[in-house]
Amino acid sequence: MADPSSDLEKSLAERILVLDGAMGTTIRAYGLLEADARGTRFANADKDLLNNGDILSLTRPEVIGDIHRCFYVAGSDICETNTFSATGIAQSEFFVEDPRERGGRKDPEFYQTILENPFLNDLAWEMNVESARLCRKWADAIGSDTGRRRYVAGAIGPLTVSLSNSPDPDDHGFRVVTFDQVLAAYKHQIRALIAGGSDLLMVETIFDSLNAKAAIVAVLEVFDEDGLRLPVIISAAVGLGGETMISAQKVEAFWNAFAHVKPLAIGLNCSLGPDLMRPFLEELSDCATTNISCYPNAGLPNPLAPTGYDLGPQQMHDFMADFAQAGLLNLAGGCCGSTPEHIAAIAKAVACIAPREVPVLQ
Question: Distance (Å, rounded) from C-alpha 266 to C-alpha 260?
Fold first, then answer.
């Protein structure tokens, strides 16, 4: 089989590649109940699991597999694994009693017990491996049917804790977790994503640049220690001022912080709809010397809309076509509120438009 990295780079030079849409939004369309999320395996769990979408790769794999299938059929070249929160740190929110409920606090000592918890370590490993295998199965099946290779992106989410900010207003130096602890959790996840068959890794929805730095250090250390390399995409969620949410790093600073990684692509996703994201995408396109990815939310949250977000497929089509015609895109997709129908519209929007020209360093 051809090297996925060289295949990806060749395809990116020829056309705008299409990413997938929102896993969470699409899961809701299946009408699952708490019992579905638990299955028999987690039937006696102490906490509710319905909002733990990653657990469905183990308890309802047919649902997650069908979502991947739908996105690939809709036109996605790359689908992300269902692993946004598949670390021991994030899963502890669902399986470990919060010490604050008994007058304690979350701190590095607490998170060290999380890192050393055999159940959480085994669960995180299995979630990542099985999620990658599910996505791999449909990438290969749809790719074989269409004759166009499809890819699996191992999704590495931002975690539920921050390295940049203190949650204690009286102790600004306090952090609930250490850099090395976050690094260890990410390395465990990355190795499992690779073991499951991921073609590339996506550090995504970055709201805390220091968390993302830990994720990237984890990626590079795994590559060096295990003697391998995969393409890497890095994507940030920015606020109305173009800053990463917690660390307030502006777009150009975001690129400068990660340029040394030589990512396959760098981009923006989530937090904003395409209308509000455009000026920050333009800024990133102006400074980045690699491919640009963009998968915005389908507008602003709207509880009265069918998907919970304002924009329908045709509106996302129009915005993303405009981005592509302006020379801003190498990869395009959708985040929160984006269904397979949205992705089909986006795929149609960018199909006949040349990709952004990547600047060549002199």
Answer: 12
CATH number of the domain encompassing residue 101 = 3.20.20.330
Q: Does residue 155 sit within a domain?
A: yes
pLDDT digits (tens, 9 = 90+) for 268-318: 999 899 999 999 999 999 999 999 999 999 998 998 888 899 999 999 999
Closest CA to 139 of 241, 1, 29, 10: 1
Residue with the two structure tokens 């600004």: 172
Query: Cα–Cα distances in Å, from 1 out to 7, 47, 140, 304, 306?
Result: 10, 44, 12, 47, 41
pLDDT, tens digit, 9 for 90 and up, residues 32-69? 999 999 999 999 999 999 999 999 999 999 999 999 99
By residue range, what is the domain housing residue 298?
Answer: 4-350
Residue 237 is assigned to a structural domain of this protein: yes
355 in any annotated domain: no
CA atoms within a 13 Å half-sphere pointing along the CA-CB vector of 233: 36
